[in-house]
Write a structure and sequence with these properties.
With 486 residues, this protein is of the alpha/beta class. The protein contains 18 helices and 14 strands. The N terminus is likely disordered.
Length: 486
């Protein structure tokens, strides 16, 4: 998962991305106090990240969601990596997420960490020490300011750039990596505006470089088991699914030491919609072969009042804390319904501002039964007929080959982080197509701006662009892979 996940829990988090059109600089997002930024937050909206005076909703949909721009290059669907014996990696962002994920890159055979980058020198140096401790040559270290990642991306000895910075920086860093001929993997969300999502799609096609949303929840054991069962027809014809990011982050968002600056909390002053849909959307989209025979066509969103963060601040933050200058607008609980071309329904939820146990919901239903997670349980015909939930553990034979081969993987979040890194690096070494691509990245992230638009329009449906430009009609492989010969 990501930066916001306590080490003993099962979630994820991420980091920033600067625009090249007058946006807030990385330094202003990370270094200023919450008060300095928060004083203007009500007027900034998403427009402050590159849109001038436009509101968050209007600029989030800077292009007509129904318009499909002409393709500027060939499709990247099914495009294989060039085979290589060693994958040379550059890591940008070494905070909570990047600082732990580097351990997993170092744990995979055939991977070399060539360069690391973070403007906080101590973080970069700690990461470099991990590389040498693993027996690899000392990596190049980039710490000279907020733009030094550009020098890392320009190196000629890097195949893949991994981005684990705050959200505001994801788009520009992914763009820079591809323009320098690198494949790139980015923590969630990959961008924050529709025009940015289209630009990444176009750039991936034009540069012939993969741009991937590194959605680790797709590699969870339960998610991969349900995926294989769904594709084998055990659920019958698929009808509905649900996914979420319901994770109480109040303590972390107000912790002055956990995040480098208030960037994560400040997004609650800018957008009203689902800020983090990927963890719930990605797995269910895989079950339903979205972009591989079906596609997401529209989203309808509603949101509760935004009261949770202000209530937590009142109880826990001292008078005079900079956070008191912030006005929160992001709905405490956002609920969205996504309709697919085949008429299926996907429910998405987002709530990081109120007290509740962690849940990604992770549900799938069809004409033969249903699975629900948190806690895991299943009911399938003809196996069950008593209207009572059954033990999902009885279906372990359907585990994906990754979980059969690596039953006790290292790393956090129950091993899904390692599975993601291992499988991606394997695809690069063996010259395989990645399990997901730029079209999945754009689709899974589109609910960020579109849910905001729908909430502002009192729940009116918003069209989800066809980022594949018609390629979704063609069946192709995805997460449900077979073990390759090494």
């Amino acid at each position: 998962m990501n930066d916001d996940a306590p080490k003993d829990q099962n979630p994820q988090g991420q980091d920033p991305q600067t625009m090249d059109d007058g946006s807030l600089s990385r330094r202003s997002v990370l270094r200023t106090t919450a008060g300095a930024v928060g004083a203007a937050s009500a007027g900034l909206g998403l427009g402050a990240l590159g849109a001038g005076p436009a509101s968050a909703a209007e600029h989030a949909a800077a292009t007509d969601p129904q318009a499909v721009p002409a393709r500027k290059g060939a499709t990247m669907a099914g495009v294989r990596f060039d085979r290589r014996s060693t994958v040379r990696v550059g890591i940008v962002g070494l905070g909570n997420r990047g600082g732990s994920m580097i351990d997993l890159f170092l744990a995979v055979d055939g991977v070399r960490v060539v360069a690391v980058c973070d403007p906080v020198k101590d973080k970069a140096e700690r990461a470099a020490a991990k590389v040498t401790a693993a027996g690899q040559p000392a990596p190049a270290v980039y710490t000279k300011g907020e733009d030094d990642y550009e020098n890392l991306c320009a190196r000629g000895d890097i195949d893949f750039v991994y981005v684990a910075t705050p959200w505001d920086f994801h788009f520009q860093m992914a763009k820079t990596a591809m323009l320098n001929g690198k494949h790139v993997g980015v923590e969630c969300p990959i961008a924050l505006r529709l025009d940015q999502l289209w630009e990444l799609v176009d750039l991936s096609e034009r540069t012939r470089r993969h741009c991937m949303q590194l959605e680790n929840c797709c590699y969870g054991r339960n998610e991969m088991r349900v995926l294989r069962m769904a594709h084998a027809g055990l659920f019958g014809d698929l009808l509905h699914g649900a996914g979420a990011y319901n994770h109480d982050l109040r303590g972390l968002m107000f912790d002055p030491d956990y995040y480098e600056g208030p960037w994560r909390r400040l997004w609650h002053t800018r957008l009203r919609g689902d800020l983090y849909p990927n963890h719930g959307f990605g797995p269910v989209a895989n079950y339903m072969d979205v972009n591989r025979g079906d596609r997401a066509v529209s989203i309808t969103s509603v949101g509760s009042p935004s009261l949770g963060l202000a209530a937590y601040r009142k109880e826990h933050m001292p008078a005079g804390d900079p956070s008191w200058k912030e006005t929160y607008i992001e709905s405490d609980r956002t609920i969205s319904l996504v309709q697919t071309a085949k008429g299926r329904v996907i429910r998405l939820e987002h709530d990081v501002s109120t007290p509740h146990p962690y849940s990604r919901i992770n549900s799938l239903g069809g004409t033969k039964g249903v699975f629900e997670d948190y806690p895991e349980r299943i009911y399938l015909e003809p196996d069950h007929s008593n209207d009572e939930w059954a033990d999902f553990g009885a279906y372990a034979e359907w585990d994906h080959w990754l979980w059969k081969k690596y039953a006790d993987p290292p790393g956090g979040h129950g091993g899904m982080d390692y599975m993601l890194v291992f499988r991606l690096m394997q695809c690069m070494r063996l010259g395989l197509a990645p399990d997901f691509d730029v079209y999945d990245a754009a689709t899974w992230t589109a609910p960020v701006p579109l849910s905001h638009l729908s909430i502002k329009a009192k729940g009116a449906p918003q069209p989800i662009p066809d980022f594949t430009r018609g390629e979704w009609k063609k069946a192709r492989s995805g997460m449900d892979s077979t073990e390759p010969a090494e």
